[in-house]
Amino acid sequence: MTKAELCALKWSDINWKNETIFIQRMEDSSGNIVEYVKSDSEAGYRELVLTDSVINMLKLIKNSSQVLSEYIFCNEVGARKTKLQFLNKLRRAERAIGFEKEKGSHCIRRTVASRMNVSGIALDEIRRWLGHTDLETTLKYIYNPFREDITKKIKNNSILTANSKCIQIYSKSQAV
Prior knowledge:
49% of the residues lie in helices and 8% in strands.
């Protein structure tokens, strides 16, 4: 989900029984809520399965709120939080945990997409989850989510590396 979609989520979007949330609106560039996510595509309208931790977080938000609001994320008077407020909160959180460089919400989306891919989730499901129409757009979000040292271990132990070492050893033994 994007911050534009997050700030437009309503409690009525949650299906508690099926543990899903329906994405159907967003904040547009002028700060208004629009009742469609992507006007040129059905991909913006999507139902996402919620993890147990997200369900628990939403229940905690709902039960601890002292303000009645149709929006899930709201301020102390019940007005919905805006994209800018989400962005500011993200930046404060990044500073608090010591990120040297600010990460945007799209960076988070790339990480989630990449981890979903490594977990074996089908590319078309990742595309749908991100709300993309075109698989090519989704592929641009996926990268190697491993740290560089892990990537080196994987490369050094891959079948291609092992085979090239075997060929080198075999070639040297044939020369003797």
